[in-house]
Amino acid sequence: MGVFSRFKDIMSANINSLLDKAENPEKMIRLMIQEMEDTLVELKSACAAKMAAKTKAERHGKETDQYIKRWQLRAELAVEKKKDDLAREALIEKMKYQKDLEVVQTDIEQYEKLISECKNNIIKIEEKLQVVRQKHKLLIQRGIHATEQIKAKETIREAAGTKAFQRFSELEGRIERM
After folding, report:
1. Measuring CA to CA, which of 8, 41, 132, 142 is 20 to 30 A from 150?
2. What is the pLDDT of residues 68-106, one digit of tens each?
């Protein structure tokens, strides 16, 4: 039992070490930016769909309002002509459309709330995306600066190392032979 757990621990440590070596922070940040952009696109399309549904509900509300007015006129005409049965039926139809209009108005209010939430979320994600992009640029610049410093240190090490003294000695030897 102890052998298997040790083997598992060794393999896990080696795999983690390989992953740490293979992980490129710049690429990981690019992946995060891409995921945020994808989320932003999905959120914008969902918001657009809600806006379209709200517009459709508003159009339905206007049509329903016209039906209410039409049934009201019919009820008034029926009363004028002393046809109480027709007036009663017209008022019943008007009531149906009024209930439908109330439902549509509550739907429109809900769509307005959802749309405002979507817009706020879009603004938040766009701000975060902007911050991440700025940090990404800063990290790239830091990486470039760090690699330049490493190269400069290597050059100084090579110049101060034994190779420079060997070349100097060789040049000195040539001059003395001349």
Report:
1. 132
2. 999 999 999 999 998 889 999 999 999 999 999 999 999
Q: Contact, 71 vs 91, CB < 8 A?
A: yes
CA distances from 126 to 26, 82, 117, 138 (A): 20, 65, 14, 18
Tell me phi and psi for residue 25, to 5 degrees: -60, -35
Burial class (CB in 10 A: 0-12, 13-18, 19+), 71: buried
Find out whether 45 and 121 touch, Cβ atoms under 8 Å.
no
Quote the pTM value.
0.66
Tell me 178's DSSP state.
Answer: -
Tally of CA atoms within 13 A in the half-sphere of 149 that contains its CB? 6
